[in-house]
Amino acid sequence: MIHVEVVFALPETVTSLTIEVVKGTTVEQAVIQSGIIEKHPEIDATALTLGVWNRTVKPNQELKEGDRIEIYRPLIADPKDARRKRAEKAKEEGRANKVTGGRPIER
Fold first, then answer.
1. pLDDT surpasses 60 at 16
2. In the predicted model, what is the mean pLDDT of the chain?
3. Which band of pLDDT confidence, cut at 50, 70 and 90, is reported for residue 83?
4. Which single residue of 20, 34, 61, 103 could bond 6 by disulfide (Cβ 3.0 to 4.6 Å)?
5. Any residues with CB less than 8 A from the CB of 69 and at least 6 apart, and which?
């Protein structure tokens, strides 16, 4: 038997459960065994994005003693789209060169 931690965070709360599982248990199996999905109905069990110690992993990865399983929430905004909007705003405000996107040359 090994001990692992299953964690799910919302902006206002964090749920952390330490469970004991059989050696050879996968990340997905441990999440199901922990019961965290029943405690948080907002978790979509059909589309889990999981990580172990801050690294995204496949659901079938086997666990090791002391692993911390993290259940990730979907992104609210696409990071590339958000970066593009910030760059456009900087160009409009004169903080960036309209052609190159770099800082404008001050003369």
1. yes
2. 85
3. confident
4. 34
5. 4, 5, 6, 7, 27, 30, 31, 50, 51, 52, 63
Helices marked H in 1-107: 27-34, 36-39, 79-92
Distances (CA, A) of 64 to 5, 20, 33, 69, 91: 11, 11, 16, 11, 49
Could you state, in order of their start, the residue ranges of all structural domains in the chain? 2-72, 76-107
How far apart (Å, rounded) are the C-alpha atoms in residues 8 and 87? 33
How many angstroms separate the Cα of 51 from the Cα of each of 28, 35, 71, 74, 104?
Answer: 10, 17, 7, 13, 41
Q: Give mean pLDDT, residues 55-75.
A: 91
* 92: Cβ contacts below 8 Å, ≥ 6 apart: none
Please tell me the class of the 2-72 domain. alpha beta
